[in-house]
Design a protein that fits this description.
The protein is of the alpha+beta class. 20% of the residues lie in helices and 43% in strands. It has helices at residues 2-24, 99-108, 115-130, 135-139, 197-203; strands at 35-52, 59-76, 146-151, 158-172, 180-191, 206-211, 216-221, 227-229, 231-234, 242-244, 252-258, 265-280, 285-299. Strands 1, 2, 3, 4, 5, 6, 7, 9, 11, 12 and 13 form an eleven-stranded antiparallel β-sheet that branches. Helix 1 (2-24) packs across helix 2 (99-108), helix 1 (2-24) runs parallel beside helix 3 (115-130) and helix 2 (99-108) packs antiparallel against helix 3.
């Protein structure tokens, strides 16, 4: 339905734009220069998992610790009358209409799909608008209210560090030997800066939408399924060379964070509950992960 109103607005605008242009002259188009900024992220996660076997002798336990520190280059490529992410209850499907489009919507709502009725209603609205010298302003969407930012992939978009620090223990039976306790550590670090473009693309999944009128920010982050090289010590019965920073995660979403739109720096912190998991030995032991996200966005 919203698409219909946009089409109707285009028809009405065609009827009146030449008259308005004659009165005001052709405005000189201005090329929008992309805005840039930096997004700083710190994700700290911890989790524990244990599995007890039915023989009541064997058991496995995993304590996982994850830390991500990331700096992302961000930019706003185009102005937009609607947010990419839902912010303040508004998304691309219910963003505010310009006054002219709202007038058309109200005029045709009672037509119940009758095309003749709709044509007459739009013609009546167009005639009223032609009598108004500022008609074009009523048809133009407000592209100053919302900002949509994304990772800037025109160059290296991310730098930072991912750390893994896991410990496991348990009781294991390897016949014919009797039950025997075991303990291991699994740790490693990944520096993003020198990595391949494919790996950086995983890290650079970040979007921000801001409602400058309400002073609210929403954020979506991906890039948590990045393999981190690890070293195993102790007895783990496995020989992993790398593990995912976080398994089973669809990313992180924050909605309606309060920000001061007059400021050039925004920041916040959010608790993360069971946003993914960490496992050992092909899922034999699984630790659900929770923690917190600390973020800071700086406009250049």
């Amino acid at each position: 339905m919203r698409t219909f109103y946009q089409g109707a607005a285009a028809i009405a605008l065609t009827c009146i734009v030449s008259a308005d242009a004659s009165a005001q002259g052709s405005p000189r188009s201005k090329r929008f220069e992309p805005l840039t900024g930096r997004l700083f992220l710190m994700v700290e996660l911890k989790g524990q998992g244990r599995k007890d076997l039915s023989n009541k002798v064997e058991w496995y336990r995993l304590a996982a610790d994850r830390r991500l520190e990331l700096e992302l280059a961000m930019y706003m490529l185009l102005k937009s009358p609607a947010p990419t992410l839902t912010v303040g209850g508004i998304d691309k499907n219910n963003a505010p209409m310009p006054a002219g489009m709202e007038a058309i919507k109200n005029a045709v709502e009672g037509c119940n799909g009758d095309q003749n009725c709709e044509s007459q209603a739009m013609a009546a609205v167009a005639q009223k608008m032609m009598a108004n010298p500022g008609v074009l302003a009523a048809m133009q969407p407000d592209d100053t209210r919302f900002e949509n930012w994304c990772a800037d992939r025109r160059g290296p978009c991310a730098s930072g560090t991912l750390r893994v620090d896991d410990e496991g223990d348990g009781m294991n039976i390897s016949p014919p030997a009797p039950a025997k306790p075991y303990r291991f550590k699994r740790s490693g670090t990944l520096e993003l800066a020198p990595q391949s473009a494919d790996l950086l693309d995983r890290a650079c999944k970040a979007e921000i939408s801001v409602d400058r009128q309400k002073g609210l920010l929403s954020m979506r982050l991906g890039g948590l399924n990045i393999p981190v090289p690890v070293r195993m010590t102790g007895q783990a019965y496995t020989a992993e060379k790398s593990v995912l920073f976080l398994e089973g995660s669809k990313g992180i979403e924050l909605f309606d964070q309060a920000v001061s739109t007059d400021a050039t720096t925004w920041s916040g912190q959010s608790q993360l509950e069971k946003i993914g998991s960490v496992s050992h030995n092909s899922g034999q032991t699984v630790a659900p992960m929770s923690g917190k996200l600390t973020w800071r966005f700086v406009r250049d």
